[in-house]
Amino acid sequence: MKFFTISICLLFFSLQSFSQDFSTSEYTLSNIFLKIHRDSSETNNISNNAKFITVLDSVLKIPESFFYTFSSLKIGNVIAPDNTFRILTWNLMHENGTYENFGFLQKYDKESKKVTVYYLTDKSDVLKNQMQQVCSPDSWIGATYYMICQNKYDGQTFYSLIGWDPNNTYTQKKIIEILKFDNTGLPVFGIPIIELKGKGFQKRIIFEYSSKNTMMLRYDKRKKMIAFDHLSPSDFRYTDIYEFYGPDFSIDGYKFTKGKWRYQADIDIRNKRDKFSDYLPQRLINLFRKKETNAEQLGL
Known about the structure:
Radius of gyration: 23 Å
Number of strands: 15
Number of domains: 3
């Protein structure tokens, strides 16, 4: 019993030490990142971004860092549903109004308890025909990812990354990126499994629209599909001029079927209402529950 108590204490203190070590790193990273903003000069932003990359790279190469959340670090930070990797991403605005994306993919091996860290280099300014490009970490179509969903088919695992790219002064982008790991364990960005209406299957989908508008793009767990606002120009004269594009109040989606994300138009993502209580305001439901609890306590 005494040995067990000592072991628990040692475990507690080791966890405390582990948390304190990475909290110090998180504090350092947060301070550097706060210096990267649009009101600072291009030179200072590039310099501070380089410092941020160096410090974050050194931290992520420590295996135990995979289990630290870095929750106060205001960058994209998403982990795969199977806890095999996570991606940390952010962007930097340049003086000419364009944005450059940066990121790291941290892969964790559960057997060896080791991590492999890949630095992601944004090449979206030079890559053509981007929805058909197969990319590596060294040649990445950048985005700040905010969601990952995972699907399996025929012995393969696909990770669908959902992200945002500020792009430039006039337009922004939302991206559905397909990631898988090859036979050697290397990450590959761009797998041709997303249907584009009338154009076959793409390796990724890129939505471009006005920087003044917002677009919904997310994985709906209840529907088990990716749902998104349908985009269209404000006037037919602006077709293919994306600074005039925005949501047109209809919702489309992708459903994963037989290893492919298949397009579905005009979907309904509202919650179904099956019971009488589904039609009541939440405040009334809470009031009824409170009264029921009070009645039970009084033995009524």
